[in-house]
Design a protein that fits this description.
282 residues; alpha/beta; Rossmann fold; five-stranded mixed β-barrel
């Protein structure tokens, strides 16, 4: 097949899949969401706070799949929170789950099609900055894409955004400033820093962590950047919240485990819910 025609066909399939999935969700009652929220590892309990919730398992939604990480519920939850209509992913898709980068970012594309104006992206991460203690939250001020992939590769979907989107201001500074002020008033420690995404699923080596620190990263994780790129492409307001679950490889003197990440997420549950609520309200 001609390379150009193949690219056109792939673009048309993606466009068709986005519209099909959005249409299915509208038929299920997901109408006019204002804010999209993506919940990371160990952070799914926020979905339980949604009022008048419509809960749809991923494996019932066309063009989506259930996911394979135990700490992610695999549910889409739509309802109200703090007076806003919110659409919550209780569990995300990861690049390392044998997904294409397009599939990893696909739910965010569907949220864009459904009309959200703000995307709140959350994750669990390893702390690189020695001044950032594990067990606290970090606002993402910027990111480093170390995945080697970009969900915008391929023909551009012009109806959503420009071919060459500017990523200078992905994470809205005005919203960050308001969120930091609210957190401080509530007595919640909220760091701010740069998040670097790697593919996973293996945790990083100590040498990699030292290199990432030199690059300017404050925290490391295996998600979030593809969703942020799609949101920036569509000119959404973006807030990134990273739960610092542990010290990154080589910094704590002990091996890393996913159970530790999940457990620490549960310990940060109350502060996390309060900060996400603040991000919904501002």
């Amino acid at each position: 097949m001609d390379v150009i025609q193949k690219s056109i066909d792939q673009c048309e399939r993606l466009r068709s899949d986005i519209r099909e999935t959005a249409g299915f969700l509208r038929d299920k009652g997901v109408t006019d969401p204002e804010i999209g929220i993506i919940l990371g590892t160990g952070l799914n309990d926020y979905a339980d706070s949604i009022e008048d919730a419509i809960v749809i398992p991923y494996d019932e939604i066309p063009n989506m799949y259930a996911g394979s990480v135990d700490s992610h519920r695999g549910q889409l939850v739509y309802g109200s929170r703090k007076g806003k209509k919110v659409l919550v992913m209780a569990g995300r898709f990861h690049f390392y789950e044998n997904n294409s980068i397009e599939m990893t970012a696909f739910p965010t594309r569907v949220m864009v099609e459904l009309g959200i104006k703000r995307l709140i992206i959350t994750n669990a991460s390893g702390s690189i900055n020695p001044e950032h203690e594990a067990g606290h939250l970090m606002l993402i001020s910027d990111h480093i894409n170390f995945s080697g992939a970009n969900p915008l590769i391929g023909r551009n979907l012009d109806e959503y955004g420009t071919r060459f989107p500017d990523l200078t201001y992905v994470y809205d500074k005005g919203l960050r400033d308001k969120l930091k002020e609210k957190a401080a008033d509530a007595g919640i420690k909220l760091y701010e820093g740069v998040y670097i995404m790697v593919t996973g699923p293996s945790f990083e080596t100590p040498a990699e962590i030292r290199a990432f620190g030199v690059l300017g990263a404050d925290a490391v994780g295996m998600s979030s950047v593809p969703e942020a790129i799609i949101a920036a492409h569509a000119r959404l307001e973006v807030i990134g919240i990273s739960a610092l679950a542990n010290k990154a490889a080589g910094l704590s003197g002990r091996p890393l485990t996913n159970d530790e990440v999940t457990e620490m997420g549960m310990l940060m549950r109350d502060d996390f819910i309060r900060v996400v609520d603040m991000a919904v309200e501002i």
